[in-house]
TrEMBL record:
PANTHER family in the cross-refs: PROTON MYO-INOSITOL COTRANSPORTER
Species this chain originates from: Buttiauxella brennerae ATCC 51605
Protein name: Arabinose-proton symporter
Membrane topology of the entry: Multi-pass membrane protein
Database matches in Pfam families: Sugar_tr
Amino acid sequence: MNPTKTNRQTILVCFLAALAGLLFGLDMGVIAGALPFIAKEFGLSSHHQEMVVSIMMFGAALGALCSGPMSSSLGRKKSLLLGAVLFVIGSIGCAVAHNMEVLSISRFILGLAVGVASFTAPLYLSEIAPERIRGSMISLYQLMITIGILAAFLSDTALSEGGHWRWMLGVITFPAIILFVGVLTLPESPRWLAMKDKHELAGKVLKLLRNSNKEAQDELNQIRESVKMKQRGWQLFRHNSHFRRSTYLGVLLQFMQQFTGMTVIMYYAPKIFEIAGFSTTHEQMWGTVIAGLTNVLATFIAIALVDRWGRKPILKLGFSGMAICMGILGYMFHSGISNPTEQYAAVIVLLIFIVGFAMSAGPLIWVLCSEIQPLAGRDFGVTCSTMANWIANMIIGATFLTLIDTIGSPNTFWLYGVMNIVCIVLTILFVPETKNISLENIEGNLMRGAPLRLIGQQIFKGIRPDTAAAK
Ligand code: BGC
């Protein structure tokens, strides 16, 4: 079997699965530009506008919750297909909505789709990619999210001229159809197949995706070993303290990602440009597009480095950069921005912050969350962490403006600076390095009681294997 061909096949499969991220990004990014026109046409109060925005995150949390059991029973592929169908229905619903109720229901359906996609796509990617490029392939998913956000910002800017909000929302139907067709061609996850005792099929998929039959057979053997433990999700969570640790770590990681403050920048970029002294809508829209573009470009840094430098050094670097930028921005807002030089300096600091996020916590948190869970409880563990992402996302989105109003912009940005410092400490204490190590090896360490920050070691020597059974 030709090694290059096989690798290309894997990359294509990963690319198609990562398309789900594009839809996630499009739906996250699109509403900022569409909302003013929707509010005008339906005469919405601020409260109703908040509802139109946040009902999607509510749907996403619920979608993520249902995805665990669903992808466990139906399989990863069928879950992704269902997600794609929901994207199509939700987008068409938004485009034709004639009142706020229909629009809200459609946004809720989109939320369900985003929840399913944000759960299933990284999980599928982590199960299908060979370990040496696993980090890059899951980062590809984050790259798609950022491209989706940027595309939404751009199409909003282009369509805002005529106030075509129905097109802004409706145009997402096309990538959703492409996702559906793309997913139809994907193979099922070999790990899920093995979990369902379909070992022969799992072997076939692995042969298609690996460089040699031997590599495929070795991986299948490892997977068979790890699926012997039959406990599942909630049961495992109740009875196994090691699995509880990895579940809590996943939740913590997603909270860390959201509390960096990046989501605030993505949702409220125009507002932040306004605080920095850019008063016209035109300036704010283009500033937002530049922020989106920076986000996309810097994600490539992560893709290039994640499997070489490892997860932990990049995370520490990213959180440090973000902490410094938040500190400087707080200081600039505190001392007042009074001339164009200071305005542009603030934009540069903001862009460096975005680089810090996009090259680290943006992709790496998704990477880690899908890597740290043991197979028997992976669906449950990833469900919990993905839900945590959406819950934290809702909290952050709903409190930013209130924070600015109550404690002021400088303190708000300093607060985020402090949270980034806390993230550095948490990374040092709890985050494992999972570079170049198989998921089965990580699982072995975790279930043997290795401290969380050491579960990515090749062979963890500190604990005797027989203590695992006792837990
Ligand atoms: C996060 C989003 C964030 C986006 C920005 C994602 O990984 O989950 O909350 O807005 O990255 O690129």
